[in-house]
Amino acid sequence: MGRHYILQLWYSIWKRKVNIACIIISIGVYCLNQLIFKRQFKGIVGYFCKCHLNDLVCPLFFLAYAQILLIWVKYEVKTYIGLLFLGMSAGFVWEYLAPIINPKAVTDIYDLFCYFCGIQIYYFFTIIENRLSNSS
To answer: What does pTM read for this prediction?
Structure first.
């Protein structure tokens, strides 16, 4: 890979700081969930942490990572509908195709709702970033 491509990748990583923040947040929440939350919380909160929290933060990671790659190839998804389509397409793959490949995976409509909510969170972060960059 030439130096030019590496510089383009570096630019795509730093073009939208929201992508870096979302990747860090999603990895942080995932690690906390795996190491602490699933063991500490009981009842409905414990159930949510065990079954749905990772599905809520997954779109933050996935969309941020996808956007970095898409910016790198000069096609950034800039519309809400585009983000919704990209995120929900991934959700359908994970929820409906993964169980065909992996017998331990389970299809869960509530997980799709969590993906949808995660997409809303990502989109909210992009709105905040856009407003902050336009105000300065």
So the answer is: 0.91
**Helices within the chain (DSSP H only):** 3-15, 17-32, 38-40, 43-51, 53-72, 80-92, 98-101, 109-135
Q: How far apart are CA 57 and CA 120, in angstroms?
A: 11
CA nearest to 119, candidates 66, 46, 73, 74: 66
What pLDDT does 1 receive? Answer: 55
Give the model's pLDDT for residue 5: 79
133, burial (CB in 10 Å: exposed 0-12, middle 13-18, buried 19+): exposed
- What pLDDT, in 10s, does the model give residues 101-135? 988 888 889 999 999 999 999 999 999 999 998 88
How many alpha carbons lie under 13 Å from residue 94 in its C-beta half-sphere?
19
Question: CA neighbours within 13 Å on the CB side: how many for 112?
Answer: 11
Rounded Cα distance between 2 and 21, Å, is 27
Question: Could you tell me the two tokens for 84?
Answer: 């919704």
